[in-house]
Amino acid sequence: MSLSTKYNPKEVEDKWYQHWLDQKFFHSEPDPNKEPFTVVIPPPNVTGVLHMGHMLNNTLQDVMVRKARMEGKNACWVPGTDHASIATEAKVVALLKEQGIEKSDISREEFLKHAWEWKEKYGGIILEQLKKLGASCDWDRTRFTMEKELSDSVIKTFVDLYNKDLIYRGIRMVNWDPQGQTALSDDEVIYKEVQSKLYFVKYQIEGEDEFLTIATTRPETILGDTAICINPNDNRFKHLHGKSAIVPLVNRSVPIILDEYVDMEFGTGCLKVTPAHDINDYELGLKHKLESIDVINDDGTISEAGTLFVGQDRFAVRKSIIKEIEAINQLAKIEEYTNNVGFSERTDAVIEPKLSTQWFLKMDTITKPALENVMNDKIQLHPPKFKNMYRSWMENVRDWCISRQLWWGHQIPAYYLPNGELVVAETPEEALELAKKKTGNEQLTVGDLKQDEDVLDTWFSSWLWPISVFNGINEPDNEEIKYYYPTNDLVTAPEILFFWVARMIIAGYEYRGELPFKNVYLTGIVRDKLGRKMSKSLGNSPDPLKLMEQYGADGVRTGMLFSSPAGNDLPFDEKLCEQGRNFSNKIWNAFRLVKGWEIDEKIDGAANRTAINWFESKFNSTLVEIEDHFSKYRISDALKATYKLIWDDFCSWYLEMVKPAYGQPIDRSTYEATINFFEQIIKVLHPFMPFLTEEIWHQIKEREDKDCLIVAQWPKANESNANILQKAELVFEVVSTVRNTRNEKQISPKEALSLSIKSNDPATYEQFGGIIRKLANISEINFVKEKVDGAIGFVIKSDEFFIPMDGMIDVEKEKENLTKELEYTKGFLKSVMKKLSNERFVNNAPEQVINNERKKQADAEAKIKAIEENLASLN
After folding, report:
1. What mean pLDDT do residues 533-552 have?
2. In whole angstroms, what is the distance from residue 797 CA to residue 761 CA?
3. Is the pLDDT of residue 661 over 60?
């Protein structure tokens, strides 16, 4: 195969991805002879398209899966999508409106037909986009949360939990979306800081001329007030204890109640209580047995219970009610106020806290194993700082509202009898049998039963995901669930740690008696350069497909991972992708260089033996470091170590050490060692940059279709020689210093220099002599006992080096530079001596720290001596 001068991702990516698919490298079947490595994808919404968060999340999963596959594990990465009840229903409703059809004008069955058509047409887009990224999912296993097997799992689970008395139906406070007209879970509410107004309204004390003032941002809820609450310790209002107040406009008499919940410092110290429209007021209402008046309809208009402004929109009423309160002289003042307001994630409507009849799952006891097994680290969160957040959530968990007022989703398997009673069963036929038994009426038919209209919260299907994708609910003892479960790693975002991760753990212990995964890697949020979360509304999120078009999938993958430590936000900059692309080109050019060498069998390769031995040790020591990073889920650090190994150690040092002069051949042993190193480094790089590395793997030599890098054996670290690594670092510093000296003195790199070395251990420089001469263009190396007059000197560690200049430098300028360096080094030595003369520091600091400081002292003293001698030689 001929090598193009520039790496072209477009020619490579589709070719190799299709080849991997054709060879079934992504596919997994249970194999008792192999260790499984199972990952389930956090199922993206079926409505979704690829965004930067998906890119980060799925790149991390792919890195882990590819590494496991190369380690010989039976890697199984299960893809799929979530039916996303609210989002999908909103899309279908909008689509129908464009066709002049209202949802209210068609039956549920007709609506679902449209929804399924929409899903079949648009639902797989995001999974196809993930293939462009290189995601090595087992596409044969693609699942959808509403396919029959998974739907059956959800219904079976609901029935089981209901029969265990863990699911109940009741009236509770929920987050209500007036536009979508459904209850929402907490995670479906987005809080935004908005500029509001704080209205100060006067309430008359019943039977008196006195007024008390409350502050509210939602005056429309005054219509539902059933109490005024004050803090019992607030001396300003002691005289009001036991009295009542009159609600303005509706003239309702309400008690003045006492509760320490009220913040005496906030507002006026008096709180109006509307139990039907605020979660905290609802709790106060329960505690003090207050009436609850629901004054807002499901669509956000005022209900008949409000008595005034009936049928008008809540926000229009906010303005109207203030005008009327002002007209009766009961508006004290209005202030500008900044507060957090909840918006529906799907419709962007302002959330209305609202009492509603819903289905709930009791969470007090079912959550205990999920809390215990994260706290004891059987399930590990990476980074572990999230354990405290997890514990806080789980210790203060509320019952889970699992019903949604939608048509798209899993319809709740509750059936209402003609007398109002209900039965819960997996099928209408089973429900009928239960109904007959319950009523004693054998004449009942399925037509007499009415199924609950609501569907289940989407999370109620995705909490079963690691089990249901292997059909472990319907067939608990099937071969696949026993082999692949529990899964290994989960990669997801911290904001769904409770809403999804914790619930999967709950389900795992409830239905399998064990954890669903061993490790949870929590990614950060992808932010722009200004620190803002990337979003469509801000227009600050690049199109991932365009990025991959421009920089190649490998460039974007590495670009994202360069700065994404677990749990910390990723400050994304397109320059990171450019850095990734440059890395691709660097590797490609290095490979072209090596493949361009001609072999001469007559050449002895002994001269390159030191370089080969050094890189072998460097590779092994770095591989240990990389493995350590992987074991601690420091994926970004593993990439950085790989990047440094390839860019710095291999390309910048090793290849420079061994490459022959331009147009000259190389010996076989050096060539084969270099090719072997290339194979090893691209193995380590493959999980991060799969396309480039697979292409190079096949360019190295002709290989069988099955002999691909994706299934090549992951390297095993051998013993590294610490001594040669240490010596090489010293030699590289010498080479760099000589190069810098050339730059400073404006001496051409082509001009050979002589180097004299004063050292107590010349063996290092003898061993690496050929490398120093080659890399620094040194014509000869001399070992001396004394300083060399008329030479530029420098000190590394305690060794002194001299480069005779022979009239090549400006003596006065050199004296000036040396004098500045001398002053700086004396200042540095002074700071070190100050530390070492501090008894408290010497007595308390670890021995290693003290030794480091003494080493600094010795090096500085040697450097000062050398500079002073250099200065003397120039006089």
Report:
1. 84
2. 12
3. yes
How far apart (Å, rounded) are the C-alpha atoms in residues 669 and 665? 12
Distance of alpha carbon 274 from the chain centroid: 39
Burial of residue 866 (CB within 10 Å: 0-12, 13-18, 19+) is buried
- Contact 249/222 with Cβ under 8 angstroms? yes
C-alpha torsion sign, points 499, 500, 502, 504: positive
Cis peptide before 486 (omega within 30 of 0): yes
How crowded is residue 127: how many other Cβ atoms within 10 Å of its Cβ? 21
* pTM summary value: 0.84
**Which residues, at least 6 apart from 305, have a Cβ–Cβ distance to it below 8 Å?**
223, 224, 293, 294, 295
Amino acid present at 386: F
Q: What is the DSSP pairing of strand 252-258 with strand 778-783?
A: unpaired
- Alpha-carbon dihedral sign for residues 583, 586, 592, 597: negative
Q: Do 375 and 391 contact (CB within 8 A), yes or no? A: yes
Token pair of 741 as six digits: 């000296």
Helix, strand, or coil (residue 381): strand
Instruction: Measure the CA–CA gap between 94 and 116, rounded to whole angstroms.
Output: 15
Of 810, 755, 788, the closest CA to residue 870 belongs to 788
Return the number of other C-beta atoms located less than 10 Å from residue 646's C-beta: 23
pLDDT tens-digit map of 303-323? 999 999 999 999 999 999 999
Give the residue carrying structure tokens 């040396």.
818
Which sign does the torsion angle of CA 698, 699, 704, 705 carry? positive
- What does the alpha-carbon distance between residue 63 and residue 76 come to, in Å, rounded to a whole number? 13
How many whole angstroms separate alpha carbon 510 and alpha carbon 160? Answer: 11
Rounded to whole angstroms, the maximal C-alpha distance in the chain is: 120
For the chain, domains (ranges, CATH) are: 191-347 (3.90.740.10), 573-720 (1.10.730.10), 749-874 (no CATH)
